[in-house]
Amino acid sequence: MQVHAQMPRGFPTLLDWEHPAHTGFNIRRSAYITSAIMVPGAFCIAWTLILTGVIEPTPADKYVSISLFIGYWAALFAFVDNPGERRSWSAKWHEFLIVWLLTSGGAQLGWELPAVYMKVSYLYQLGAELQPDQLIFWPWWLYSVADTRYMRPHEAQLAHEAMLAHSGFLEILAAYLLSKGKYYKSAVGIAILTNWGAFYGNTSVIYLGEILVNYRNLADGAWGFWLKWVGLNLQWSVLSPAAAIGGIWLLVQRVRAETAEELGNNSQRASDSDH
After folding, report:
1. Domain that holds residue 68
2. Nearest-angstrom CA–CA distance, 93 and 236
3. How many domains does one find in the chain?
4. What tens digit of pLDDT does each residue of 172-209 get?
5. Residue 7 falls within a domain, yes or no?
6. Are 99 and 74 in contact, with CB atoms under 8 Å apart?
7. Whole-number Cα distances in Å, 93 to 30, 130, 250
8. Given 55, 87, 204, 239, which residue has the most CB atoms within 10 angstroms?
């Protein structure tokens, strides 16, 4: 987007989102590729090895949980400039939103959504140890063995899962629109609503709901408590509100930029009419 010369000073512009040229190692791209390997990659590789009998369900669940915990934070690299770059805060927040929406939306559609539809028929049958004929459910057992609300009747948990899981479609849609520069304000609005909803639901149901009942649904020892229950939910209580706040800031910048551009156009037309 070109900036009009008449644009008032001090007004931001959400200009063009092309990254400035940089030299040397591409930090962000490497981080995103690493995250793709650590999250779906490690998950699928371990699942395949378990199904083929090469490795056991545990301690693979703990190693993969560590990989997931690290990989889920990849969106923070959006704020890191590559050598030679001097990106605006608008560009950084824009990239952060896209990466986090893809990360969160992928988790909702790839893990949470199947859990919602399998829970009553299949996940309720799981226990502290997987039986040979249950290995296909290892990806969901991995977390459920720590937070047993996922494999036991729990209406509030199921309602929370259902809402969160289906919001993944909106997250992926918003990420796509932002990456293409289409319907920008609508896409940011979707990102704000889905992330605020994820923050509220995750913090209230996953964390506070369990704290208020003295952690009675948690199992799997310290690994289950710190790594799985705390660690694998923490991103939605930290990055989701950050994304919502960042989205609001971007929306304000866009409106201000459009207002400034309109003022510049009006000023230009008035100047032309005087000649």
Report:
1. 27-260
2. 17
3. 1
4. 999 999 999 889 999 999 999 999 999 999 999 999 99
5. no
6. yes
7. 19, 42, 7
8. 239
